[in-house]
Design brief:
With about 130 residues, this protein is an alpha/beta fold. Helices cover about 15% and strands about 35% of the residues. Strands 1-4-3-2 form a four-stranded mixed β-sheet, covered by helices on one side. Strands 5-8-7-6 form a four-stranded mixed β-sheet. A hairpin with a 4-residue loop joins strand 2 (about 30-35) and strand 3 (about 40-45).
Length: about 130
């Protein structure tokens, strides 16, 4: 019945800052950008390489969502990369803090975490 993941929706605290992070820094392509005046909100549709979309929303004064310790709900968003060392080096050169690279005990693949401007954990997973 399910054919794949269509999108993941994120609510940001500062729309301009988050837009710059996902579009300008990470290079995710904009599909559409809509201002919803009645909601005092922006909606940004982004095409994730390899399929699927991110929907980035802004709302006036959204509440913080706990991330750590491991809270119920969405834990993190993972992006596939071909070269972990290159990806980590690039993020660090851009001033993004990256956790030490670890190895998944179940798959033997390398992975690491960094965060978006609102502290959402983002994972890089080497394919």
């Amino acid at each position: 019945m399910l054919q794949g993941l269509h999108h993941v929706a994120l609510i940001c605290g500062d729309y301009a800052r988050s837009r710059a992070f996902y579009v300008d820094l990470l290079g995710i392509t904009v599909i559409a950008e809509t201002h919803r005046a009645e909601r005092r909100s922006w909606k940004l549709d982004l095409a994730v390489p390899g399929g699927g979309q991110l929907e980035l929303f802004s709302f006036p004064e959204p509440p913080d969502r706990p991330s750590r310790p491991e809270a119920k709900g969405l834990r993190h968003l993972a992006f596939r990369v071909a070269d972990m060392d290159e990806a980590v080096r690039w993020l660090e050169d851009e001033g993004i803090a990256v956790e030490p690279v670890r190895v998944d005990a179940l798959t033997g693949k390398r992975f690491t975490f960094f965060a978006d401007p609102d502290g959402l954990p983002l994972e890089l997973y080497e394919s």
